Every structure is written in structure tokens, then in C-alpha cells.
Amino acid sequence: MSGKPFLATIRGLPDYPNITEINVRDVPGINLDVVFKVAVGMDGLTIHDVQPDNQKLNEEGKTYQWFKLTFYGGAQGWVRDDLLFIEGDGSAYGYPDDIATNTHAFTLQKQAISAVTKPAPTATTTTTTTKPGTTATTPTTSSTTKPGSTATSTPPSADGTINALDDIARVQQAAINITHTFEGGGYGAYNNYDDGIISYGIIQFTLAAGTLAVVVDNYLGRANSDTANRLRGYADRIRARDASLKDDMTLKNLLIQAANEPEMQQAQNDLMISNYWDRTIDQYVKTRGFRLPLTYALLFDISVNFGVGDWFVRKAEDRLGVESRSHIDSHSATEEQIVAIIVELRKTSHDRQANEQNLPGLKVRGDFWVGLVNSGDWNLQGDGNGNVNINGHLVQVKNP
Question: How far is CA 140 from CA 72, 126, 300, in A?
């Protein structure tokens, strides 16, 4: 066995390039409603199970297989093998143990695995990618500072730079301060005008992705207020991602009221840190040996904005001619060079979407990160008062 993670990428239908999203189902078959849609090209998706089509649908005698995946934000669902690329060690599910990157899943023949035991899941205290409909558990994040706490700053090294890992509490809090300003500004932020159907909270957890359900379940497991008891009546519909909740003003008011309670704030903090900060730092930042506070904050903000993944980083690495996902000490490119390309790519993405969808506010986010890089604020210290300016809002980063 290779031991490489078994991962999927949304392949889509290359013969139909106008199809940019594919359906995700709640069961391994097309006989129930679509749960949500995801974008073609989404990658790094963990595979949890593989099952044959529940209606035995096939193409030229080959039965379709369905893959159960975890998507950005923690939601789970099933996608058919003709829509997927897969890679890594698939031996636990009857596939080869060293599948090359971008292998079309449908071209592989799944073998019986009667003699193979699937590996037991490893317990962790920092993951809350709980399937919508179950109760989320509170992660233990002993190395991190929750929003609202006081972080102290670490002096720079001899070369003037601060290692983010030596100043992690401040860097995390500064990153959260920046990102939640872009995402709406607070625990009670609410909108129902985008693809999330309902977007709520400090980093806009959504009904469509299932993360709103995780937050609400976590809150309800802690709280006994009148607001919580009234919100329990909506729990099943939130877990089911009922789109008719979009215009329910009673639900909107309950969520906004709940945001004033410590239990809801803690529920949001837990999922934000475990599902976005921890995954970003552990999977894509530390592994590359990145050290700069600006890098940590930028990649966290990208994960919240675009979903947890390292597409922008890999594109920057490719442009610089360095091996994908390699350690910063193993090649000649500097962290600053990589980050400069990342913010350029991100700005291009935001500008394009802003023009296509008439959303000029998106340009502000891309321009902000380009500005930080151009100013050389790698230590994330802000101006003379320790603030950064986000479209007129002063956000404290030096002593958050």
C-alpha cells in the first residue's frame, strides 16, 4: 500500500464545457433529489466510501460506482464515478493502491474487498466536519486563540521577520479579524441573496453547504435559552437544507438573536477554527514550511472565501517552476515570490467574477491582499496604530 491519501477531483463532463457544476446526492443513486451542487475542478476531496449504483444503472454493462466525499466547508454527499478523477491509495475500497493523479474513476474496475479491512478512522480533537443531521462535538484547540481573546506579539528575528508559528495566537486572531470583516462583520451577519441560500455568522456558514446545520446543532447542544428552544423546531429542516427557509423571517430573527449568546459564538468559533484554520495550516501551510504571518492570514482567507484547498498555491508553484507542494527549503523560490503570485491570481479571479456578475465589491478583497504584499507587510503589523484598512474599516492586527 502506498499510504497516499485517497482523493477525488470533480471532473465534470469534458464534452460539455458549458456544464460548470455537478449534482451531489444524499444516496448513491439518482432516485432522490439533488442535495447541492459543486463546481467542476474542485479538488482535494476526501473519499469516505464507494458503493455501486443503487438502481444498478450502468454503461455498456459496467455498473456506475458512487463515491462519498467531504466537500469544502464539511458537507458530505455522493458523486458518480463518471464525474470524478481520483488519485492515491484506493486499496481499502477495491481500487489500486497507487492511482495516478487525474485518473478517471469510471475507467477503473472496482474489485471485491472481502479480504480487505477498511482502516478505522483516527480519532482527533480538532475536526468538526460533522455530517449535517448529527450533533457536532467541540474541538480542542489548545494551540489557538478564540476570537475575542487577547494575543501577545512576538519580536521579529534578526532578519526582521516574524515566524508565524512563534506568534500563532496573534496571527490567528489577526487573520480572523480580517476575514470576518470581509464576510459580514459579526456572529449575527445574515444574508439570503447568494448561492448559499442562507449565509450566516462570522464567516458566513451556509444552508446549501451544510455548515449552517453543523453550527446550529453545536449551538443547540449547548444552549437552553428561549431562542434555542424555538430554533430547535427548525433543526430538521436546516439539516435537510430546505431551500424554502430562505424567506423565513422567523428563522432569520432567531439566528440573529442567537448570535448574542456565548453558546452560538462558541459554536461558530469551533467550526471556523477546526474546519478552516486548522485544515489550512496543517494541510497546506506547515507542510510547505511557510513561515510568514501574512501567508497564514492570506491562505486562511482564501479557504473561507473559495473553500479549503491549495489551488492558488499550486498555480504559483507551477509558474515559478518548483515542484508542487514541495517544502520552501527544497527549491530556490522564496515564500514572498510565491505569495506575490497567489495574490495576483486571486485578484484576477475576483476581478473576473466582479465583471461577470456585476459585483464590484469583490474587487476590494483582491485589491486588499495585493496592497499588503506591495507594502511588504509580511509580519502583518498594519499601520502605525497596528491597523489595516478594509474599505474604510480599520481592523487591528498588531495587537488584536
Answer: 21, 6, 19
